[in-house]
Amino acid sequence: MVNPDQLSMLMIGAQYYAKTTDPEPVIAPFGSGCMQSVSLFKNLDVPQAIIGATDMAMRKFLPPEILAFTVTKPMFANLCKLDKNSFLEKGFIKQLKKVRGKNSSS
Among 36, 63, 77, 100, which is most buried by a count of CB atoms within 10 Å? Predict the structure, then answer.
């Protein structure tokens, strides 16, 4: 479960290792609130993520600022590889944290 700022960073992270010939790293297919997001992946061996929790019928069970970001194991591994040489140390994230009142080292 993520807020919009976290979703933005995760989407950038999901794109980080993707090649133009790879399947889309992040997709947002519709799935009903009672559906398991994992069933929407065509291939669990591909690094991919799904934006979820968009079904209006189930939104009442979540805080208004929360969505889901579900990843395959290969995408999780890619996200875990991100380090200070990636976008994580770039100015945009530091500026966002400053605007949100958070310490840039957290």
Answer: 77
